[in-house]
């Protein structure tokens, strides 16, 4: 019995240590953003790194004074929001077409889409850059939006979800007189909230943190998103970690909002109510 | 309302599965026809072909005077109740009922009046604002029927609509469906694998096996005069005891069948009406329903056979007696012609609950020979 308790204690201690490793950077950033800039690095090696003695919002006001935070935020919201909304439309329709519709070459096209899933952006960044330059899209919003709307992984997520939806729902709608598009909009979409929520969260997370592509295709802050905004601090001496942390906190906040908005559908299973007796 | 006809309809799926083969069926206007058969026999596929959810590989499907092979489900004006109800989970019962009417682009006033009339007809008034997950199985079933009725279709299609309900509710809804169809007088095609549903609901019952129509008749005829060995075994619970035998001429110009070593003489009239003379000396199959057995000492018994009781199922008002005797019952589901070795281990008789019979007892059973059926070597009834 005693031995069992000891093992349990060791397991819990390991888990707490592991959890600390993941949470520590976030807490460090949050606490650091509330400290006078001079104390951030001084206290970094001690427990005080996680305990602010003098709470100040000075770093936050410095961020707004030193860089155009609201511009970066607007750009990020516009770019990420557009990708998410357009992506939901395009990828859900593509997923539905692969899952439910019969058309010549479907399996080949689907296999190709799945292959695209394993190609990283870095591998196609240069040809893509060449392409958007030819189109004259550099330094615009659309160059940061269009290439990321269609997403193989999102298509796959929708595809697997639609496969699991009872086919009778669509057949009932078909007999009731609804066409394919109306069935999709009025019957399928409302019953696919978990898939839409999952794709929303994952796309938002990926695009919110996009750095390489915006760096390649934009040059001025007019259309640049938040991750490039935070990078400007490194070229604005003196290097102030408090400001960077405050920027970081404000950059993470929208992700939390999106997650909290959609998380209740995030892991919910198929809405099969009304299907089984 | 409309007539429905399948003319030489075949369906082969992409993977080569044959679901229907040269299927013919004529359904009269306002008739209630039940398609019954074992799982995988193609009955649901035929219903879906009629609904327009599947296309026939070959043949013609008519609703009324129109050939509907190329028409969409909506153009066919059919309504369907699915096995799993297929109610739209995100809509209330009212919106479920409204949906087909909105697709028909009816006015709001018409939609409202039709929905309320249907709700009243099915006793759904109080449930209209509930979503499917807030309804019981029976209530969902009613909403599903309501969604079909509200359209006032020319043909109703029902695909095993009671299979998800418990036994008690099934009986109740079954009665309601029958009453509803009588009231509306709409052509109805009902698919089930439950022969009790088939026998109690249908004006006529179509028995299907391996995508082919075996027999189409009213329930009593199916029971008393099955067209072939499959129907004999499928209809009735338990099904008919079918066994291989031989027809012999005995004295006094009478015919007899072999029951093991025993010869059982047939009544002259029966033999004549069955026109059995040409089968004398040839092997054929005979069938006896479990009800054709009786206690040996009753006046109904026209002859007796010795049996060894293997097991007894007491059902209260009756016994089902499983026994071995001089003949071996055929496995009617998998009949493969004369000399078929697929047999059921035991024969079965239905006796009144008042008799006292024990397991392993050797007894004499009476036979009511007027109920005997004969089938040719290829399994076709000699009189239908």
List keywords for this structure.
heterodimer; A: 277 residues; mainly alpha; MetI-like fold; 14 helices; disordered C terminus; B: 384 residues; alpha+beta; Rossmann fold; OB fold (Dihydrolipoamide Acetyltransferase, E2P); 2 domains; 6-stranded mixed sheet; 5-stranded antiparallel sheet; 10 helices; 20 strands
Give the % helix of chain A: over 70%
| Rg for CA atoms of chain B | 25 Å
Shape descriptor of chain B? elongated
Tally of domains of chain A: 2
**Rounded Rg of chain A:** 24 Å
Structure report:
The complex is a heterodimer of chains A (277) and B (384). Chain A has 14 helices and no strands. With 277 residues, chain A is mostly helical. Chain A folds into 2 domains: 55 residues, no CATH class; 200 residues, MetI-like fold (Orthogonal Bundle). In chain A, helix 3 crosses helix 14. Chain B is α+β, with helices and mostly antiparallel strands and 384 residues long. Chain B is built from 10 helices and 20 strands. Classes of the chains: A mainly alpha (277), B alpha+beta (384).
Task: Draw up the topology in text.
The complex is a heterodimer of chains A (277) and B (384).
Chain A: H1 2-33, H2 37-42, H3 58-66, H4 69-100, H5 106-116, H6 121-134, H7 142-145, H8 152-164, H9 167-176, H10 180-188, H11 193-208, H12 212-217, H13 226-231, H14 241-266
Helix pairs in contact in A: 1-14, 3-14, 4-8, 4-11, 5-8, 8-11, 9-10, 11-14
Chain B: E1 4-12, E2 18-27, E3 32-36, H1 43-51, E4 58-63, E5 66-67, H2 73-76, E6 78-81, H3 93-103, H4 108-122, H5 137-149, E7 155-159, H6 167-184, E8 187-192, H7 195-201, E9 204-209, E10 212-217, H8 219-224, H9 229-234, E11 241-250, E12 254-259, E13 262-265, H10 268-273, E14 283-288, E15 293-295, E16 303-314, E17 318-324, E18 347-352, E19 362-367, E20 373-375
Parallel strand pairs in B: 3-8, 3-9, 6-7, 7-8
Antiparallel strand pairs in B: 1-2, 1-4, 4-5, 9-10, 11-12, 11-14, 12-13, 14-20, 15-19, 16-17, 16-19, 17-18
Helix pairs in contact in B: 3-4, 3-5, 4-5
């Amino acid at each position: 019995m005693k031995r069992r308790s000891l093992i349990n204690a060791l397991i819990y201690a390991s888990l707490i240590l592991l959890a600390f490793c993941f949470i520590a950077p976030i807490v460090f950033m949050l606490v650091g953003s509330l400290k006078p800039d001079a104390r951030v690095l001084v206290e970094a090696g001690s427990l005080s790194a996680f305990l602010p003695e003098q709470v100040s919002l000075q770093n936050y006001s410095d961020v707004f004074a030193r860089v155009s935070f609201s511009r970066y935020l607007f750009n990020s919201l516009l770019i990420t929001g557009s990708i998410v909304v357009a992506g939901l439309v395009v990828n859900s329709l593509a997923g539905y077409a692969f899952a439910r519709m019969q058309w010549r070459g479907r399996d080949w096209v689907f296999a190709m889409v799945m292959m695209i899933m394993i190609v990283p952006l870095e591998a196609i960044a240069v040809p893509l850059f060449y392409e958007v330059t030819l189109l004259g899209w550099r330094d615009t919003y659309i160059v940061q939006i269009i290439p990321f709307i269609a997403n193989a992984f999102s298509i796959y997520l929708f595809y697997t979800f639609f496969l699991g939806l009872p086919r009778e729902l669509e057949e009932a709608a078909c007999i009731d007189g609804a066409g394919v598009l109306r069935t999709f909009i009025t019957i399928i979409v409302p019953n696919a909230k978990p898939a839409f929520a999952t794709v929303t969260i994952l796309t938002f997370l990926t695009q919110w943190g996009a750095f390489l592509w915006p760096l390649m295709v934009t040059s001025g802050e007019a259309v640049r998103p938040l991750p490039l905004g935070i990078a400007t601090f490194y070229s604005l001496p003196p290097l102030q970690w408090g400001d960077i942390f405050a920027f970081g906190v404000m950059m993470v906040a929208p992700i939390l909002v999106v997650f909290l908005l959609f998380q209740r559908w995030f892991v919910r299973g198929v809405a099969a109510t009304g299907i089984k007796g | 309302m409309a007539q429905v006809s399948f003319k030489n309809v075949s369906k082969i799926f992409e993977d080569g599965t044959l679901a229907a083969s040269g299927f013919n069926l004529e359904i009269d206007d306002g008739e209630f026809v039940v398609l019954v058969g074992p799982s995988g026999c193609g009955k649901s596929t035929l219903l879906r072909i009629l609904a327009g959810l599947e296309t026939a590989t070959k043949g013609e499907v008519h609703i009324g005077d129109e050939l509907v092979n190329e028409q969409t489900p909506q153009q066919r004006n059919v309504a369907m109740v699915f096995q799993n109800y297929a109610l739209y989970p995100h809509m209330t019962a009212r919106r479920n009922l409204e949906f087909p009417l909105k697709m028909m682009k009816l006015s709001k006033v018409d939609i409202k009046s039709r929905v309320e009339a249907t709700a009243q007809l099915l006793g759904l008034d109080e449930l209209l604002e509930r979503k499917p997950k807030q309804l019981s199985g029976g209530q969902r079933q009613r909403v599903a029927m309501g969604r079909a009725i509200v359209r006032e279709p020319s043909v109703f299609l029902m695909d095993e609509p009671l299979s998800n309900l418990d036994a008690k509710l099934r009986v109740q809804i079954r009665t309601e469906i029958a009453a509803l169809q009588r009231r509306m007088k709409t052509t109805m095609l009902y698919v089930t694998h439950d022969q009790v549903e088939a026998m109690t609901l249908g004006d006529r019952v179509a028995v299907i096996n391996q995508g082919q129509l075996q027999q189409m008749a009213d329930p009593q005829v199916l029971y008393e005069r099955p067209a072939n060995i499959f129907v004999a075994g499928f209809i009735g619970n338990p099904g008919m005891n079918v066994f291989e035998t031989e027809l012999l001429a005995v004295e006094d110009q009478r015919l007899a069948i072999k029951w093991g070593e025993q010869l059982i003489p047939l009544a002259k009239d029966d033999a004549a009406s069955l026109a059995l003379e040409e089968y004398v000396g040839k092997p054929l199959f005979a069938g006896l329903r479990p009800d054709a057995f009786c206690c040996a000492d009753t006046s109904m018994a026209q002859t007796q056979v010795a049996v060894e009781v293997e097991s007894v199922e007491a059902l209260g008002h009756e016994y089902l007696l499983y026994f071995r005797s001089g003949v071996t019952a055929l496995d009617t589901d998998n009949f493969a012609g004369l000399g078929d070795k697929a047999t059921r281990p035991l024969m079965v008789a239905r006796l009144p609950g008042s008799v006292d019979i024990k397991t392993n007892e050797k007894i004499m059973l009476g036979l009511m020979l007027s109920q005997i059926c004969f089938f040719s070597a290829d399994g076709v009834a000699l009189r239908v």
